[in-house]
Amino acid sequence: MLIIVGAVIVFAATLGGFMLAGGHPGVLLHPSEFVVILGIALGVLVIATPAHVIKEIIHKTKLAVTGKNAGRKDFFELLKLLYEVFMIGRRNGLIALEEHVMNPQTSSVFQKYPSLLEHPERLEFLCNGLKPVIDGKIKPDQLEALMGAELQAKELESDHPVHALQMIGDSLPAIGIVAAVLGIINTMSAIAEGPAVVGEKVAAALTGTLLGIFVAYGFVNPLAARIKSNNASDQQCFRCIMQAVAGFAKGLAPLTAVEIARRALDSSVQPGGEELEAELKKLGTK
Questions:
Q1: Each residue of 86-107: b (16+ CB within 10 Å) or e?
Q2: Is the pLDDT of residue 162 over 70?
Q3: Which of 115, 145, 204, 220 could pair covalently with 169 via S-S, beta carbons 3.0-4.6 A apart?
Q4: How many helices (H) and strands (E) does the chain have?
Q5: What would the mean pLDDT of 252-277 be, rounded to a whole number?
Q6: C-alpha dihedral over 121, 146, 227, 273, to 10 degrees?
Q7: What is residue 24's three-state secondary structure?
Q8: Mean pLDDT, all residues of the chain
Q9: Which long-range contacts (CB under 8 A, 24 or more apart) does 155-163 make?
């Protein structure tokens, strides 16, 4: 919910400073300027962006507002799941993993970790990485390249909404100028109506410039940055899975493969080494 807190701070600082200087918030309310600026921005987005990217922008904006990112607990569960899966493969043979990988939703192992089941992309990436290991259709040293190619494609795809929002953010100040020019044209046509009317229309025109800059740098560009940060968090999950699965495929012990993945995580989400090892050893005795 930090994004909402930030939005409140932006509004409070802008209106608060304006009112402290003697301004009245009512003079900033010009519906025509809102229609022109936000309407043009929406039109630009529709023209420049494919429909599936627009849907993804809406989806990722909702995630940004709710603030649901993979945290330390999520990575803790992910590493525990990976260890359990690897232990099954080590003890019972890789073929024993087939029932879990082919039907993860009904797997007794996967059901213990709902945080992964709630994210189909992460679950699919893990299963896609394990299937070649089970089938034996690929050499262990080739698996990391295969998963890396899929990860790279996911990174490129996840950045499409960011680029679209950045494009809109960069366009909004110029769109504000368009609204201001329209306002000045309207002002000039009413110049004979007296200073009071002219002053009101000039204020409306200047509000257009303000609104374009305000929305761009106060909301759209920061939203793009937040989505990019969320994407980086998702990529950490994929990279964690890739490193662990690739290590296991190369013959590393389950504990070692999981430890490599743990150490590659950011410190903000990285589970403690001793705590994780203690939990994994408990799983290994079951």
A1: bbbbeeeebeebeebbeebeeb
A2: yes
A3: 220
A4: 13, 0
A5: 87
A6: 80
A7: coil
A8: 86
A9: 155/231, 155/235, 158/231, 158/234, 158/235, 159/228, 159/231, 160/53, 160/56, 161/53, 161/56, 161/57, 161/60, 161/224, 161/227, 162/224, 162/227, 162/228, 162/231
The pair of three-digit structure tokens given for residue 174, joined into one six-digit string? 């110029």
User: For residues 78 and 111, what is the distance between their CA atoms, to the nearest angstrom?
Assistant: 12
Give CA–CA dist 88/112, Å, rounded.
15
d(CA 105, CA 114): 10
- Which residue has tokens 């490599």? 260
Residue 47 burial (C-beta neighbours within 10 Å; 0-12, 13-18, 19+): exposed
Report pLDDT for 224.
Answer: 94
